[in-house]
Amino acid sequence: MAEILIRNTNERITGEDNVRSFLKQYEVLFEKWDTSKLPAELHHKFVLNEEEKQQILDVYDTEIKDLAARRGYQIWDIITLSEATPDLEEKLAKFEEIHTHAEDEIRAIISGKGIFIIKGDEQTGYFNVELEPGDVISVPENTPHFFTLMDNKQIIAVRLFIEQNGWVADPYPDPSFIKA
Ligand SMILES: [Fe+2]
Questions:
Q1: Cα–Cα distance between 160 and 108 in angstroms, integer?
Q2: How far apart are CA 121 and CA 123, in angstroms?
Q3: What is the pLDDT of residue 180?
Q4: Cα 176 from Cα 71, distance rounded (Å)
Q5: How far apart are the C-alpha atoms of 172 and 168, rounded to whole Å?
Q6: What is the whole-number distance in angstroms between the Cα of residue 104 and the centre of ligand 1?
Q7: Is the whole-model pTM more than 0.85?
Q8: Is 105 annotated as a binding residue?
Protein backbone atom coordinates (compact mmCIF):
# COMPACT_ATOMS: atom_id res chain seq x y z
CA MET A 1 0.00 0.00 0.00
CA ALA A 2 1.33 3.37 -0.98
CA GLU A 3 2.47 5.74 1.77
CA ILE A 4 3.19 9.44 1.67
CA LEU A 5 6.01 11.26 3.39
CA ILE A 6 5.82 15.04 3.54
CA ARG A 7 9.45 16.00 3.31
CA ASN A 8 9.31 19.31 5.23
CA THR A 9 7.59 17.91 8.31
CA ASN A 10 8.37 14.17 8.15
CA GLU A 11 4.62 13.56 8.48
CA ARG A 12 3.52 10.18 7.11
CA ILE A 13 0.15 9.52 5.56
CA THR A 14 -0.94 5.88 5.49
CA GLY A 15 -4.10 3.98 4.66
CA GLU A 16 -5.63 3.81 1.22
CA ASP A 17 -8.39 6.39 1.80
CA ASN A 18 -6.02 8.91 3.41
CA VAL A 19 -3.45 8.49 0.66
CA ARG A 20 -6.06 8.84 -2.05
CA SER A 21 -7.62 11.96 -0.55
CA PHE A 22 -4.24 13.60 0.07
CA LEU A 23 -3.23 12.99 -3.55
CA LYS A 24 -6.58 14.19 -4.83
CA GLN A 25 -5.78 17.71 -3.57
CA TYR A 26 -2.98 17.77 -6.13
CA GLU A 27 -5.00 16.03 -8.82
CA VAL A 28 -2.74 13.00 -8.60
CA LEU A 29 -4.71 9.94 -9.67
CA PHE A 30 -4.37 6.97 -7.34
CA GLU A 31 -5.94 3.58 -8.04
CA LYS A 32 -5.26 -0.08 -7.28
CA TRP A 33 -4.81 -3.11 -9.50
CA ASP A 34 -5.27 -6.64 -8.17
CA THR A 35 -1.76 -8.10 -7.77
CA SER A 36 -3.13 -11.61 -7.27
CA LYS A 37 -3.88 -11.69 -11.01
CA LEU A 38 -0.15 -11.85 -11.76
CA PRO A 39 1.18 -15.40 -12.24
CA ALA A 40 3.32 -16.43 -9.24
CA GLU A 41 6.47 -16.90 -11.32
CA LEU A 42 6.37 -13.22 -12.35
CA HIS A 43 5.97 -11.74 -8.88
CA HIS A 44 9.66 -11.39 -8.14
CA LYS A 45 11.17 -11.50 -11.59
CA PHE A 46 12.91 -8.29 -12.60
CA VAL A 47 14.52 -9.35 -15.85
CA LEU A 48 11.78 -10.07 -18.38
CA ASN A 49 11.85 -11.26 -21.96
CA GLU A 50 9.41 -9.87 -24.52
CA GLU A 51 7.05 -12.80 -23.99
CA GLU A 52 6.87 -12.18 -20.24
CA LYS A 53 6.27 -8.46 -20.78
CA GLN A 54 3.40 -9.30 -23.12
CA GLN A 55 2.08 -11.75 -20.54
CA ILE A 56 1.85 -8.92 -17.98
CA LEU A 57 0.12 -6.64 -20.48
CA ASP A 58 -2.35 -9.45 -21.25
CA VAL A 59 -3.06 -10.10 -17.55
CA TYR A 60 -3.95 -6.44 -17.04
CA ASP A 61 -5.56 -5.87 -20.43
CA THR A 62 -8.95 -4.92 -18.93
CA GLU A 63 -7.37 -2.41 -16.50
CA ILE A 64 -5.18 -0.90 -19.23
CA LYS A 65 -8.05 -0.54 -21.69
CA ASP A 66 -10.22 0.97 -18.95
CA LEU A 67 -7.57 3.63 -18.17
CA ALA A 68 -7.06 4.25 -21.89
CA ALA A 69 -10.80 4.74 -22.44
CA ARG A 70 -11.14 7.11 -19.46
CA ARG A 71 -7.96 9.10 -19.95
CA GLY A 72 -7.05 8.95 -23.60
CA TYR A 73 -3.91 6.81 -23.55
CA GLN A 74 -2.98 5.43 -26.94
CA ILE A 75 0.11 3.34 -26.27
CA TRP A 76 1.54 1.39 -23.34
CA ASP A 77 4.55 -0.70 -22.47
CA ILE A 78 6.46 -2.27 -19.58
CA ILE A 79 9.49 -0.70 -17.95
CA THR A 80 11.92 -2.88 -16.00
CA LEU A 81 14.70 -1.57 -13.79
CA SER A 82 17.03 -3.59 -11.59
CA GLU A 83 20.70 -4.10 -10.88
CA ALA A 84 20.72 -6.05 -14.16
CA THR A 85 19.77 -2.90 -16.11
CA PRO A 86 22.79 -1.62 -18.01
CA ASP A 87 23.93 1.78 -16.65
CA LEU A 88 21.32 1.70 -13.86
CA GLU A 89 23.10 4.35 -11.74
CA GLU A 90 23.43 6.65 -14.74
CA LYS A 91 19.76 6.21 -15.57
CA LEU A 92 18.73 6.89 -11.97
CA ALA A 93 20.86 10.03 -11.83
CA LYS A 94 19.02 11.29 -14.90
CA PHE A 95 15.60 10.38 -13.45
CA GLU A 96 16.37 12.24 -10.24
CA GLU A 97 16.34 15.66 -11.85
CA ILE A 98 13.11 17.55 -11.14
CA HIS A 99 11.11 18.00 -14.33
CA THR A 100 7.66 18.37 -15.84
CA HIS A 101 5.94 16.85 -18.86
CA ALA A 102 3.32 18.14 -21.29
CA GLU A 103 1.21 15.07 -20.53
CA ASP A 104 0.54 13.20 -17.31
CA GLU A 105 2.93 10.48 -16.17
CA ILE A 106 1.08 7.33 -15.24
CA ARG A 107 2.64 4.20 -13.80
CA ALA A 108 1.08 0.96 -12.58
CA ILE A 109 3.50 -0.85 -10.31
CA ILE A 110 3.60 -4.57 -11.04
CA SER A 111 6.57 -5.69 -8.89
CA GLY A 112 9.18 -4.02 -6.73
CA LYS A 113 8.97 -0.53 -5.28
CA GLY A 114 9.44 3.04 -6.42
CA ILE A 115 8.99 6.60 -5.22
CA PHE A 116 7.54 9.60 -6.95
CA ILE A 117 8.68 12.88 -5.43
CA ILE A 118 6.07 15.49 -6.30
CA LYS A 119 5.83 19.22 -5.68
CA GLY A 120 2.69 20.12 -3.74
CA ASP A 121 1.55 23.64 -2.87
CA GLU A 122 3.79 26.26 -1.24
CA GLN A 123 2.87 25.19 2.28
CA THR A 124 3.25 21.44 1.84
CA GLY A 125 6.27 21.52 -0.41
CA TYR A 126 7.58 18.29 -1.88
CA PHE A 127 6.19 14.94 -0.80
CA ASN A 128 7.27 11.35 -1.49
CA VAL A 129 4.77 8.79 -2.69
CA GLU A 130 6.21 5.35 -1.90
CA LEU A 131 4.67 2.85 -4.26
CA GLU A 132 4.13 -0.89 -4.00
CA PRO A 133 2.81 -3.52 -6.37
CA GLY A 134 -0.79 -2.80 -7.36
CA ASP A 135 -0.45 0.97 -6.93
CA VAL A 136 -1.41 3.04 -9.96
CA ILE A 137 -0.42 6.70 -9.93
CA SER A 138 -0.61 9.55 -12.38
CA VAL A 139 1.32 12.77 -11.90
CA PRO A 140 -0.57 15.57 -13.69
CA GLU A 141 0.92 17.41 -16.63
CA ASN A 142 3.14 20.40 -15.74
CA THR A 143 3.58 19.22 -12.13
CA PRO A 144 7.26 19.20 -11.02
CA HIS A 145 8.33 15.70 -9.95
CA PHE A 146 10.88 12.97 -10.29
CA PHE A 147 10.94 9.23 -9.89
CA THR A 148 13.44 7.02 -8.16
CA LEU A 149 13.78 3.51 -6.80
CA MET A 150 13.83 2.43 -3.18
CA ASP A 151 16.74 0.61 -1.56
CA ASN A 152 16.05 -2.72 -3.22
CA LYS A 153 16.50 -0.98 -6.60
CA GLN A 154 14.07 -3.01 -8.61
CA ILE A 155 10.77 -2.30 -10.27
CA ILE A 156 8.45 -3.44 -13.02
CA ALA A 157 5.75 -1.01 -14.09
CA VAL A 158 3.26 -0.44 -16.88
CA ARG A 159 3.51 2.98 -18.53
CA LEU A 160 0.78 4.53 -20.64
CA PHE A 161 1.13 7.46 -23.03
CA ILE A 162 -1.22 9.74 -24.90
CA GLU A 163 1.37 10.59 -27.52
CA GLN A 164 4.66 9.02 -28.43
CA ASN A 165 6.46 12.30 -27.76
CA GLY A 166 4.38 13.45 -24.81
CA TRP A 167 6.81 12.19 -22.22
CA VAL A 168 9.71 14.50 -23.06
CA ALA A 169 11.09 15.86 -19.76
CA ASP A 170 11.31 19.62 -19.32
CA PRO A 171 13.85 20.36 -16.58
CA TYR A 172 12.52 22.27 -13.55
CA PRO A 173 15.55 23.37 -11.58
CA ASP A 174 14.35 24.18 -8.05
CA PRO A 175 16.86 25.52 -5.54
CA SER A 176 14.24 25.11 -2.77
CA PHE A 177 14.35 21.32 -3.12
CA ILE A 178 16.48 19.60 -0.48
CA LYS A 179 17.43 16.14 -1.56
CA ALA A 180 18.13 14.24 1.67
FE1 LIG B 1 8.63 12.33 -15.20
A1: 9
A2: 6
A3: 65
A4: 32
A5: 13
A6: 8
A7: yes
A8: yes
Q: Is the pLDDT of residue 166 over 80?
A: no
Centroid of ligand 1 to alpha carbon of 16 (angstroms):
23
Facing residues of 106 across strands? 138, 160
Cα separation values, 159 from 13, 17, 80, 107, 126, Å: 25, 24, 11, 5, 23
CB–CB of 96/153 below 8 Å? no
- Position 78 scores a pLDDT of 97
**Residues 148-153, mean pLDDT to the nearest whole number:** 91
Secondary structure (DSSP) of 52-94: HHHHHHHHTHHHHHHHHHHH---EEEEEEESTTSTTHHHHHHH
What is the band of 154 on the pLDDT scale with cuts at 50, 70, 90? very high
101 is in an annotated binding site: yes
CA of 165 to the centre of ligand 1 (A): 13
In order of start, what are the domains of the chain with their CATH numbers?
3-169 (2.60.120.10)
List, as ranges, residues with CB under 5 A of the ion ligand 1: 105
